[in-house]
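DM from R.C. (forwarded with permission)

"hey, sorry to bug you on a friday — could you get me a structure for this? deadline for the figure draft is monday and I only need the backbone to look sensible"
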Amino acid sequence: MTTYDAVLLSSFGGPEGQDDVIPFLRNVTRGRGIPDERLEEVAHHYRVHGGVSPINEQNRALKAALEAEIARRGIRLPVYWGNRNWHPYFADAVRAAHANGHDRLLALVTSAYTSYSGVGQYREDFEKALADTSLSDVMSIDRIREYFDHPGFVTPLVEGVEAAVAELTSDSSAGAADAVTRDDIHVLFVTHSIPAAAAEASGPQFGTGGAYVAQHCVVAHAVSEAAAAGIPWSLVYQSRSGDPRTPWLEPDINEAIADLAAAGEVKAVIIVPLGFVSDHMEVVWDLDNEALTTSAENGLRAVRVPTPGTHPAFVAGLVDLIEERLNDVPDDRRPHATELGPWPDHETVGTRAEKVVAR
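My reply, with the result:
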C-alpha cells in the first residue's frame, strides 16, 4: 500500500469580488506582458456577474462532498484545497498541511484530460509551492491519474444528455412545425481550445491533436452511444485566446452552431461541456451567454448539459481514484469507460518522492 496522510484538492481559482478581477487576471496571464486595458476586455465577463467566478464556491462544495464521502468510507484523510491563480493558493494549502503534520499529499486535480495546463503546469505549481515554502525536503505531492473516462466522470454527462434529449423531444407546447424529434438534434461536445502545437505535444502517438483530442473524442463517443445513440455529434471548442496568427483547435462552437443552422438539417443542439469538471466563467459566459445566444439568433433550440460538479457519481468516482492510489490497485482493475483507459499515474513531486511509491 502507498502511504498518504492528506488529499490536496487542486484547482484553477477565480475572483470573488470586483476588486479581485484584475489581480486575478494578472495572475492568469503572468509573464505575457498583457496590459490592464486588455485584461479589462475579459474582466467584463466577470463584472456582469458581480466580479465573482462560480469556481471557488463549486470547489468549496466539492471539498465538503469529498470530505463526507471519505468519512463515510472510513478513510482517515483530511482534505486541503489550493488554487493556481487565487486564494487559497497552493503554498497556503501546503503550509497548512505541514503545520498539521501532513507531509505526504495526494493531489486531486480538477482537470480530467491530458494537456500542459492540466498536467505539466500543475506539476510545476506543486514544485513551486514546495520551494516557496521551503518544504521540498520534507514534503511530497503525488497526484491521481487523468480521469477523463472514469465512470464517475462519464455518468453525469450521460445523464445530462439523456435529460436534454428528453426535454427537447417532449415539449408538448410546441406546434407541429416546431416539434423536435431525435432526427432534428445535433450534440455539440465542447472543450477548451488550446494551441494546435500544444495539443500535438500532449501525446503525439495518438495522431492529430495528440492525447488531448483523442481523449475527448473517445469520451464523446462513449457518452453519445450511452445517451443519444443515432444522434449525430461533433467535438467543438471554445475560449480560444492569444495571437490570432497561432493555430488553435477548431471549430469554434459558435461557428459550428451557425454552420448547422445554415445547413438546415437540425432544429436543436445539445451543448455538452465535456472538457469541464465544474462551472466557471468560461462555462457561464462562453456557453450560457454566447453559445446560447448564437443558437437563438440562428433559430435553433439549445440545451446546455450540467457539468459534473458535485454529482454523487462524480464525487464517489474521485474517492474511488483516491482509494485506487492508497491500495496500489493494478491497471487491470482500474475502472475506465473507453479503450484509452486507464491512464497511467504520475511521478511524485518533492524530495520525499523516494519514500512514496509512484507507479
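R.C.: lifesaver. The chain has two domains: 6-16+53-145+311-355, 151-304.
me: no worries. The domain at 6-16+53-145+311-355 is CATH 3.40.50.1400 (Rossmann fold).
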